[in-house]
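Bumping with the actual sequence this time:
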Amino acid sequence: MFSVKRNIPIIVSLVVIMCLCLFLLINKLSTISIVENVWKFFLGGIGFIILFSISLFFILKLIKSSK
């Protein structure tokens, strides 16, 4: 059984990673020309969605197992 208190560092680190990816995505969009944005936004968006869904899955799994 997982406890939420014991896994707070894992949850916080996942959130930090997601925020970092979002920051990098925004940073890419502001510095690269519009022509290159299309596929880099697409790849970055896919990576962000995958990371977000994995971290959301783990957080939900931790919450379910702690009950």
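The tokens above came from a reply further down the thread. Residues 8-66 form one domain.
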